[in-house]
């Protein structure tokens, strides 16, 4: 682990200006991912900027959207009564993440910025295009059991590791960013993370002098009737092999709106929009759920060790929709 300086920022302007002037500096809140990366020499930052004093807190319903401050801790959001009642998929995704100890430390903003758990990225003995652009991607022919079948490229098939981001992707969430000039911009969660393409080292659209202020989730019918299912090797403290966040607006036995997002299978939180379209106007039946699930994996490109995910993700989607309607 390299030596670094430490600064505690008292304002957003102070924090973002430090990063504007020193682009290798990093923001730290809970530090549950960043410190691991630094200890393993995967990331090296000469300066850490502590943003825990910034006033980006609060969990409230405002102007038809749930606003979650970026500095809120995962456990506080997951256990919040408003979130539990009106945005259940968000609560479920958070409470199925990590461990209680980590959820008590990790911030919402930091969770959206977490990096992949691909073993080749996390082990500096191997080349990795995400860690060292142009060095290669041994996962293509190597141990790819936990890696992506959707959204990959010849440069990278590392899976996005998030749970929360999957639920937010399903519910049309927006990420609120602020830069060193104090200017804010809203970015749909679906556009916040980017596909690897030929530049897998770039994982989000966030600029060097920007930080996450809040997450906004529309208070829709499909948000109120939503559900998150996570399939993993262990019952707790494990990343998803496959996950699905679903939401439905059903009236008179007919689906008026459907939302399906997937985790554990994409290089970013994956929205299955073709599957959603197939459900609109249909009855909420197992037959229709299966047809939508099949559409969700069209175009999948599994590798040798993760072909099982094609079937597993379909079963997970059907299970999530059935549990939602039970």
From TrEMBL:
Domain FAD-binding PCMH-type: start-end pairs: 1-222
Keywords of the record: FAD, Flavoprotein
Pfam families named in the record: CO_deh_flav_C, FAD_binding_5
Organism domain of life: Bacteria
A GO MF label: oxidoreductase activity
PANTHER family: XANTHINE DEHYDROGENASE FAD-BINDING SUBUNIT XDHB-RELATED, XANTHINE DEHYDROGENASE SUBUNIT C-RELATED
Protein name: Xanthine dehydrogenase family protein subunit M
Organism: Hymenobacter elongatus
């Amino acid at each position: 682990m390299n030596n670094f300086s430490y600064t505690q920022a008292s304002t957003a302007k102070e924090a973002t200006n430090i990063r504007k002037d020193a682009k290798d500096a990093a923001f730290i809140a809970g530090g549950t991912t960043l410190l691991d990366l630094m200890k393993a020499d995967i990331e090296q930052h000469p300066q850490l900027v502590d943003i825990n004093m910034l006033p980006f807190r609060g969990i409230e319903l405002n102007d038809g959207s749930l606003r979650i401050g970026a500095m809120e801790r995962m456990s506080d959001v997951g256990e919040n009564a408003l979130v539990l009642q009106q945005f259940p998929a968000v609560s479920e995704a958070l409470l199925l993440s990590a461990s209680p100890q980590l959820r008590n430390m990790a911030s919402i903003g930091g969770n959206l910025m977490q990096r992949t758990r691909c073993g080749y990225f996390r082990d500096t003995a191997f080349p990795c295009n995400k860690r060292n652009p142009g060095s290669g991607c041994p996962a293509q022919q190597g141990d790819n059991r936990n890696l992506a079948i959707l959204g990959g490229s010849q440069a990278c098939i590392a899976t996005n590791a998030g749970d929360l981001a999957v639920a937010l992707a399903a519910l049309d969430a927006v990420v609120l960013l602020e830069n060193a000039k104090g200017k804010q911009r809203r970015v749909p969660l679906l556009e916040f993370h980017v596909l690897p393409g030929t530049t897998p080292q770039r994982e989000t659209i966030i600029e060097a002098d920007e930080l996450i202020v809040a997450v906004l989730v529309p208070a829709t019918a499909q948000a109120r009737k939503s559900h998150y299912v996570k399939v993993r090797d262990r019952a707790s403290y494990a990343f998803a092999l496959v996950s699905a966040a679903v939401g439905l607006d059903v009236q008179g036995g007919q689906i008026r709106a459907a939302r399906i997002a997937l985790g554990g299978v994409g290089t970013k939180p994956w929205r299955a929009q073709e599957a959603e379209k197939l459900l609109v106007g249909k009855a909420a039946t197992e037959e229709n759920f299966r047809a939508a699930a099949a559409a969700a994996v069209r175009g999948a490109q599994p590798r040798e060790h993760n072909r099982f995910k094609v079937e597993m993700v379909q079963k997970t989607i059907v299970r999530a929709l059935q549990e939602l309607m039970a």
